[in-house]
Amino acid sequence: MEALIHHFKLWTEGFNPPKGSVYVATESPRGELGVYMESDGSPKPLRVHYRSPTFANLQIMPILSRGYFVADVVGAIGSIDIVLGDADR
């Protein structure tokens, strides 16, 4: 019961991270997922930015598509497994 109360308080009140900024990267199936956060010590962060692995994987497209036809770009996009909705965060 105490664990349930603790969980409820974390989600309703939040937690106070230390002041400053931090970047944390974790491995995901498509590559590295990064989170950058700035905090002033309150439960609500000042700034949060997500760097999705699709954004990094999409940067290879000019090199992959050089010398090929426009119709071949579909195959190149499929080969690097990107999600275009994830790239524009």
Averaging pLDDT over every residue, what do you get? 88
Q: In terms of quaternary structure, what is this?
A: single chain
> What integer value in Å does the Rg equal?
19 Å
List unreliable stretches of 5+ residues.
Answer: none
How are the strands ordered across the major sheet? 1-2-3
SS-based structural class? alpha+beta
Structure description:
This protein is α+β, with helices and mostly antiparallel strands and 89 residues long. It has one domain (16-87). 38% of the residues lie in helices and 26% in strands. It contains five helices and three strands, in the order αβββαααα. It has helices at 2-13, 53-58, 61-64, 73-80, 84-87, and strands spanning 20-28, 31-39, 47-51. It has a three-stranded antiparallel sheet with strand order 1-2-3. β2 and β3 form a beta hairpin. The relative contact order is 0.15. The mean pLDDT is 88.
Outline of this structure?
With 89 residues, the chain is of the alpha+beta class. The protein is 38% helix and 26% strand. It has one domain (16-87).
Name the descriptors.
3 strands; 38% helix; 26% strand; 5 helices; 89 residues; alpha+beta
Could you outline the blueprint of secondary structure elements for this entry?
Blueprint: H1 2-13, E1 20-28, E2 31-39, E3 47-51, H2 53-58, H3 61-64, H4 73-80, H5 84-87
Antiparallel strand pairs: 1-2, 2-3
